[in-house]
Design brief:
The protein has about 300 residues and is α/β, with parallel strands linked by helices. Helices cover about 30% and strands about 30% of the residues. It folds into 2 domains: about 5-95, Alpha-Beta Plaits (2-Layer Sandwich); about 105-295, Rossmann fold (3-Layer(aba) Sandwich). α4 (about 150-160) packs parallel to α5 (about 175-185). The longest helix has 14 residues, at about 65-80.
Protein backbone atom coordinates (compact mmCIF):
# COMPACT_ATOMS: atom_id res chain seq x y z
CA UNK A 1 0.00 0.00 0.00
CA UNK A 2 1.52 3.39 -0.97
CA UNK A 3 1.63 6.27 1.48
CA UNK A 4 1.20 10.02 1.10
CA UNK A 5 3.75 12.51 2.42
CA UNK A 6 3.06 16.18 3.07
CA UNK A 7 6.07 18.36 3.90
CA UNK A 8 6.48 21.92 5.06
CA UNK A 9 9.72 23.88 5.68
CA UNK A 10 9.55 26.04 8.80
CA UNK A 11 11.75 27.73 11.43
CA UNK A 12 12.14 25.60 14.58
CA UNK A 13 9.83 27.73 16.72
CA UNK A 14 6.90 26.77 14.43
CA UNK A 15 7.58 23.03 14.56
CA UNK A 16 5.02 22.23 17.25
CA UNK A 17 2.32 24.28 15.50
CA UNK A 18 2.74 22.45 12.22
CA UNK A 19 3.04 19.06 13.92
CA UNK A 20 -0.35 19.75 15.52
CA UNK A 21 -1.81 20.77 12.13
CA UNK A 22 -0.63 17.55 10.47
CA UNK A 23 -1.89 15.38 13.31
CA UNK A 24 -5.26 17.14 13.25
CA UNK A 25 -5.45 16.38 9.51
CA UNK A 26 -5.10 12.67 10.28
CA UNK A 27 -1.46 11.83 9.62
CA UNK A 28 -0.09 8.57 11.01
CA UNK A 29 3.35 9.93 11.94
CA UNK A 30 5.35 13.17 12.02
CA UNK A 31 9.10 13.46 11.45
CA UNK A 32 11.59 16.34 11.56
CA UNK A 33 14.52 16.70 9.14
CA UNK A 34 17.43 19.09 8.71
CA UNK A 35 16.85 21.17 5.54
CA UNK A 36 20.23 22.93 5.46
CA UNK A 37 22.94 20.48 6.59
CA UNK A 38 23.25 21.97 10.07
CA UNK A 39 24.43 19.13 12.33
CA UNK A 40 23.73 19.26 16.06
CA UNK A 41 26.45 17.09 17.56
CA UNK A 42 26.10 17.45 21.30
CA UNK A 43 22.85 18.97 22.61
CA UNK A 44 22.46 19.87 26.26
CA UNK A 45 21.12 17.07 28.45
CA UNK A 46 17.32 16.95 28.43
CA UNK A 47 16.97 19.11 25.30
CA UNK A 48 15.91 18.25 21.74
CA UNK A 49 17.07 21.20 19.62
CA UNK A 50 15.86 21.56 16.04
CA UNK A 51 17.65 22.98 13.03
CA UNK A 52 17.32 26.59 11.86
CA UNK A 53 15.68 25.24 8.72
CA UNK A 54 13.48 22.29 9.65
CA UNK A 55 11.27 20.16 7.41
CA UNK A 56 8.20 18.73 9.12
CA UNK A 57 6.76 15.71 7.31
CA UNK A 58 3.38 14.11 7.88
CA UNK A 59 2.84 10.54 6.71
CA UNK A 60 -0.71 9.73 5.61
CA UNK A 61 -2.33 6.44 4.67
CA UNK A 62 -3.27 6.06 1.01
CA UNK A 63 -7.00 6.31 1.65
CA UNK A 64 -6.61 10.02 2.43
CA UNK A 65 -7.70 12.26 -0.42
CA UNK A 66 -4.57 14.24 -1.19
CA UNK A 67 -6.31 17.31 -2.61
CA UNK A 68 -8.81 17.42 0.24
CA UNK A 69 -6.10 17.00 2.88
CA UNK A 70 -4.01 19.80 1.41
CA UNK A 71 -7.05 22.06 1.32
CA UNK A 72 -7.77 21.28 4.97
CA UNK A 73 -4.20 22.17 5.97
CA UNK A 74 -4.15 25.37 3.95
CA UNK A 75 -7.48 26.50 5.44
CA UNK A 76 -6.25 25.83 8.98
CA UNK A 77 -3.04 27.68 8.20
CA UNK A 78 -4.96 30.72 6.91
CA UNK A 79 -7.00 30.79 10.10
CA UNK A 80 -3.75 31.03 12.08
CA UNK A 81 -2.19 33.65 9.80
CA UNK A 82 -2.24 36.33 12.46
CA UNK A 83 -0.06 34.15 14.72
CA UNK A 84 2.48 33.19 12.04
CA UNK A 85 5.13 35.48 10.54
CA UNK A 86 4.88 33.67 7.19
CA UNK A 87 2.77 30.98 5.52
CA UNK A 88 5.06 28.31 4.06
CA UNK A 89 3.90 26.10 1.22
CA UNK A 90 2.81 22.52 1.79
CA UNK A 91 4.37 20.03 -0.63
CA UNK A 92 2.85 16.61 -1.25
CA UNK A 93 4.13 13.41 -2.82
CA UNK A 94 3.19 9.75 -3.11
CA UNK A 95 5.63 7.48 -1.28
CA UNK A 96 6.23 4.19 -3.06
CA UNK A 97 5.35 1.14 -1.04
CA UNK A 98 8.49 -0.84 -0.09
CA UNK A 99 9.67 -3.36 2.41
CA UNK A 100 11.73 -0.74 4.24
CA UNK A 101 13.39 -3.25 6.57
CA UNK A 102 14.53 -5.30 3.58
CA UNK A 103 15.67 -2.11 1.82
CA UNK A 104 17.94 -1.26 4.75
CA UNK A 105 19.22 -4.82 5.09
CA UNK A 106 20.15 -4.97 1.41
CA UNK A 107 22.21 -1.78 1.72
CA UNK A 108 24.26 -2.90 4.76
CA UNK A 109 27.35 -4.81 3.60
CA UNK A 110 30.28 -6.53 5.34
CA UNK A 111 33.08 -4.08 6.20
CA UNK A 112 36.76 -4.69 6.87
CA UNK A 113 38.68 -2.87 9.63
CA UNK A 114 42.44 -3.17 9.74
CA UNK A 115 44.00 -6.43 8.59
CA UNK A 116 42.05 -9.08 10.51
CA UNK A 117 38.62 -7.82 11.49
CA UNK A 118 35.38 -7.88 9.51
CA UNK A 119 31.96 -6.70 10.70
CA UNK A 120 29.24 -8.61 8.89
CA UNK A 121 25.46 -8.20 9.03
CA UNK A 122 24.02 -11.29 10.66
CA UNK A 123 21.96 -12.02 7.53
CA UNK A 124 24.99 -12.12 5.17
CA UNK A 125 27.80 -14.59 4.61
CA UNK A 126 31.25 -13.60 5.84
CA UNK A 127 33.41 -12.74 2.79
CA UNK A 128 36.58 -14.21 4.39
CA UNK A 129 35.59 -17.19 6.55
CA UNK A 130 39.12 -17.51 8.00
CA UNK A 131 39.25 -13.85 9.14
CA UNK A 132 38.04 -12.51 12.49
CA UNK A 133 34.36 -12.09 11.62
CA UNK A 134 31.90 -10.33 13.88
CA UNK A 135 28.27 -11.07 13.03
CA UNK A 136 26.27 -8.02 14.00
CA UNK A 137 22.66 -6.96 14.22
CA UNK A 138 22.53 -3.39 15.61
CA UNK A 139 18.88 -3.83 16.56
CA UNK A 140 17.84 -1.16 19.08
CA UNK A 141 21.29 0.30 19.74
CA UNK A 142 23.93 2.48 18.08
CA UNK A 143 27.00 0.89 16.52
CA UNK A 144 27.42 -0.80 13.13
CA UNK A 145 30.86 0.34 12.00
CA UNK A 146 29.51 2.76 9.41
CA UNK A 147 30.16 5.87 11.55
CA UNK A 148 33.74 7.23 11.41
CA UNK A 149 34.20 7.09 15.19
CA UNK A 150 33.28 3.40 15.35
CA UNK A 151 35.44 2.63 12.33
CA UNK A 152 38.43 4.42 13.88
CA UNK A 153 38.01 2.41 17.10
CA UNK A 154 37.67 -0.93 15.29
CA UNK A 155 40.80 -0.28 13.23
CA UNK A 156 42.72 0.60 16.40
CA UNK A 157 41.51 -2.55 18.17
CA UNK A 158 42.55 -4.67 15.19
CA UNK A 159 46.12 -3.42 15.64
CA UNK A 160 46.37 -4.25 19.36
CA UNK A 161 47.56 -7.37 21.19
CA UNK A 162 44.42 -8.06 23.24
CA UNK A 163 45.07 -11.66 24.26
CA UNK A 164 43.82 -12.45 27.77
CA UNK A 165 42.96 -8.80 28.53
CA UNK A 166 40.18 -7.44 30.74
CA UNK A 167 38.29 -4.78 28.75
CA UNK A 168 35.67 -2.20 29.76
CA UNK A 169 33.35 -0.98 26.98
CA UNK A 170 31.81 2.17 28.47
CA UNK A 171 28.78 3.29 26.46
CA UNK A 172 28.62 -0.06 24.69
CA UNK A 173 25.63 0.58 22.39
CA UNK A 174 25.31 -2.53 20.23
CA UNK A 175 28.37 -4.05 21.91
CA UNK A 176 30.41 -3.76 18.73
CA UNK A 177 33.68 -2.66 20.35
CA UNK A 178 33.57 -5.02 23.30
CA UNK A 179 32.65 -8.02 21.16
CA UNK A 180 35.37 -7.09 18.66
CA UNK A 181 37.85 -7.13 21.56
CA UNK A 182 36.68 -10.61 22.59
CA UNK A 183 37.00 -11.94 19.05
CA UNK A 184 40.49 -10.44 18.87
CA UNK A 185 41.56 -12.33 22.01
CA UNK A 186 40.35 -10.44 25.08
CA UNK A 187 39.48 -12.61 28.09
CA UNK A 188 36.50 -10.67 29.44
CA UNK A 189 34.48 -7.51 28.76
CA UNK A 190 32.49 -5.37 31.16
CA UNK A 191 29.88 -3.59 28.98
CA UNK A 192 28.27 -0.46 30.46
CA UNK A 193 25.48 1.72 29.08
CA UNK A 194 22.76 4.03 30.40
CA UNK A 195 20.22 2.47 27.99
CA UNK A 196 18.81 -0.96 28.96
CA UNK A 197 18.04 -1.61 25.28
CA UNK A 198 21.74 -1.26 24.50
CA UNK A 199 22.55 -3.90 27.11
CA UNK A 200 19.96 -6.21 25.53
CA UNK A 201 21.40 -5.62 22.06
CA UNK A 202 24.91 -6.30 23.35
CA UNK A 203 23.92 -9.63 24.87
CA UNK A 204 22.05 -10.58 21.68
CA UNK A 205 25.15 -9.83 19.59
CA UNK A 206 27.34 -11.78 22.01
CA UNK A 207 25.12 -14.82 21.47
CA UNK A 208 25.06 -14.19 17.71
CA UNK A 209 28.85 -14.55 17.70
CA UNK A 210 28.69 -17.81 19.68
CA UNK A 211 30.69 -16.38 22.53
CA UNK A 212 30.07 -17.70 26.06
CA UNK A 213 27.81 -15.70 28.36
CA UNK A 214 30.59 -15.61 30.93
CA UNK A 215 32.84 -13.64 28.54
CA UNK A 216 30.82 -10.44 28.93
CA UNK A 217 28.83 -8.82 31.72
CA UNK A 218 26.41 -5.92 31.18
CA UNK A 219 25.68 -3.14 33.66
CA UNK A 220 23.97 0.17 34.03
CA UNK A 221 26.61 2.74 35.12
CA UNK A 222 25.71 2.87 38.82
CA UNK A 223 25.66 -0.93 39.04
CA UNK A 224 29.03 -1.58 37.37
CA UNK A 225 31.64 -2.93 39.80
CA UNK A 226 34.97 -1.11 39.77
CA UNK A 227 37.65 -3.05 37.90
CA UNK A 228 41.18 -2.16 36.86
CA UNK A 229 41.04 -3.01 33.18
CA UNK A 230 43.86 -3.58 30.74
CA UNK A 231 41.86 -1.54 28.23
CA UNK A 232 38.88 0.81 28.48
CA UNK A 233 37.05 1.96 25.36
CA UNK A 234 34.48 4.76 25.39
CA UNK A 235 32.90 5.89 22.13
CA UNK A 236 30.45 8.49 23.45
CA UNK A 237 30.67 12.33 23.32
CA UNK A 238 33.11 14.99 24.48
CA UNK A 239 30.90 16.37 27.28
CA UNK A 240 30.34 13.03 29.02
CA UNK A 241 33.96 12.02 28.43
CA UNK A 242 35.16 15.12 30.28
CA UNK A 243 32.67 14.66 33.12
CA UNK A 244 33.51 10.97 33.44
CA UNK A 245 37.29 11.36 33.18
CA UNK A 246 38.08 10.56 36.86
CA UNK A 247 35.69 7.59 36.79
CA UNK A 248 37.08 6.17 33.56
CA UNK A 249 40.69 6.73 34.61
CA UNK A 250 40.08 4.85 37.87
CA UNK A 251 39.01 1.80 35.88
CA UNK A 252 42.33 1.43 34.01
CA UNK A 253 45.33 -0.21 35.66
CA UNK A 254 48.75 1.50 35.60
CA UNK A 255 50.24 0.73 32.19
CA UNK A 256 46.79 -0.06 30.80
CA UNK A 257 45.29 1.61 27.74
CA UNK A 258 42.34 3.90 27.10
CA UNK A 259 40.57 4.52 23.78
CA UNK A 260 38.23 7.50 23.46
CA UNK A 261 36.05 8.51 20.52
CA UNK A 262 32.75 10.13 19.56
CA UNK A 263 34.79 13.33 19.21
CA UNK A 264 35.09 16.12 16.68
CA UNK A 265 38.57 17.16 15.59
CA UNK A 266 38.25 20.53 17.32
CA UNK A 267 37.66 18.74 20.65
CA UNK A 268 41.05 17.00 20.61
CA UNK A 269 42.90 19.57 22.74
CA UNK A 270 40.21 19.59 25.45
CA UNK A 271 40.12 15.81 25.74
CA UNK A 272 43.90 15.47 25.62
CA UNK A 273 44.31 18.11 28.32
CA UNK A 274 41.66 16.51 30.54
CA UNK A 275 43.02 12.96 30.33
CA UNK A 276 46.72 13.91 30.50
CA UNK A 277 46.35 14.00 34.29
CA UNK A 278 46.27 10.20 34.22
CA UNK A 279 47.45 9.12 30.75
CA UNK A 280 50.29 9.62 28.32
CA UNK A 281 48.10 10.54 25.33
CA UNK A 282 48.83 9.55 21.74
CA UNK A 283 48.43 11.64 18.60
CA UNK A 284 44.73 11.49 17.56
CA UNK A 285 43.58 9.49 14.57
CA UNK A 286 41.13 11.39 12.33
CA UNK A 287 38.51 10.62 9.69
CA UNK A 288 35.92 12.94 8.14
CA UNK A 289 36.26 15.49 10.95
CA UNK A 290 35.93 12.89 13.73
CA UNK A 291 38.79 11.66 15.92
CA UNK A 292 39.93 8.81 18.12
CA UNK A 293 42.39 9.39 20.98
CA UNK A 294 44.25 6.68 22.86
CA UNK A 295 46.62 6.80 25.81
CA UNK A 296 48.59 4.76 28.33
CA UNK A 297 47.84 4.98 32.08
CA UNK A 298 50.72 6.58 33.95
CA UNK A 299 52.46 4.55 36.61
CA UNK A 300 51.54 5.56 40.15
CA UNK A 301 54.27 7.50 41.91
Amino acid sequence: MPWLQIKVSIPPEQAETYEDLLLAAGCAAVTYQDAADQPIFEPDLGTTPLWNATVVTGLFAAEHDLKETLQLLQTAQQQMAAELPSLPEFKAEILEDKDWEREWMDSYHPMRFGTRLWVCPSWREAPEPEAVNMMLDPGLAFGTGTHPTTALCLEWLDGQALEDQQVVDYGCGSGILGIAALLLGARHVQAVDIDPQALTATRDNLSRNRLPDSALDTYLPLQAPVVEADLLVANILAGPLCELAPTLASRVRPGGRILLSGLLSQQADEITSTYSQWFDMDVPGERDGWIRISGTRLQES
